Amino acid sequence: MSGAGAPPGRLLLAPVTVSPTKPLTPSHLKLLLSVDVLHRATSTLTDVTFLYRPLAHAGSRQIAGFWEFLDRRHPGTSYDDWSEERIGDAYGEFQRAERVPYARLEPLVRRAAAGWVHPVSRRVVDLWHDHYRRLALTDPMEAPGPTPMPLDELIDLLLRHGLCVDGRPFGAPVYLDATPAGLPLRTLVGADGHANYLASTLAELLPLRAGHDHVVLPHDVEIRTDYRTLAYVLTRLGTPVSRIEFPRVPLDGTARATRYGGWHAYTVDALAARAAADGPVFALGLRLYLIAGLGRTARESFDRRQLDRWLRRAERLLAGGVGAADPVALAALAGRLPYVDPYRLVTSMLGRTGGAAAGDLLAVVLGADAFAQPILSAS
Question: Which domain of life does the protein's organism represent (predicted)?
Fold first, then answer.
């Protein structure tokens, strides 16, 4: 974590997105639920713009490549009846398949740039809307995002500030240059002309920087170097940045990407089916377990028995009542950070002995909308 300072006048919260090509697993949920708590709590102290569009990177190989793979393997399929699990299995097959040249992806990349979405990702986003409602997550997926900066304008801006190396005249890649910070050159646009997710990330972030005093970039540990590079670019352009890293949650002793499988028993539907609770009990219990129970490092594997324990604790907390968010208490929890740290907030709530104080913090850990749902017993 970096970039501590006084609470800004306006904050831009821009977490790394989960691409709509796979199920949401505990690793994704740890980041998404933590960011949700951070967003709710910090919004009581300052203006927060929440930038989260899973299809912002539709032109990347991870997404457009998956679309091309499916069109080749399953031509004419509607995907309306495909489950999250079936889509996730197909995504694993795509990742193991031979990489195709950019020329095969370019028609899909152009269509995506014009706003088109492949039916498989439309299906995933529809399933995610249901998960967001079940988990009482703020759902920004349908909110209009910023108009991305055109790629040529982005590269020109970076060149003017000495932040990239342009190899296009020589048939070479365009690189982000953060070498003064001890970071390696990082490809932004390949020699074949294919821009990666860092290009689409900067194309969204840079037009917004003038209207914000601070940018918070939550991301997973595996892409630390990429996000250190993004933070360097933004800082050099005059925008203070904080990064927050989230670890991958091990499943059955192994922390690995979705593409490698092993997640079928840990999807949102699978966890909810096993838990004897739904509504706010499930939404809160999962938050407590992933944020506080697994802690900042998530060294232990996800354990469904531990989830049951946290569901029972969530039921007891909810039975104590929910108050109103207390800005004074939240400001104290933020301290010198420009945001309220979700781990500190949740662990503070769990350590309180006074029901009213815990209830006040509960209001921002879960959000008022969740309490319109029925509370079912977790016992």
Answer: Bacteria
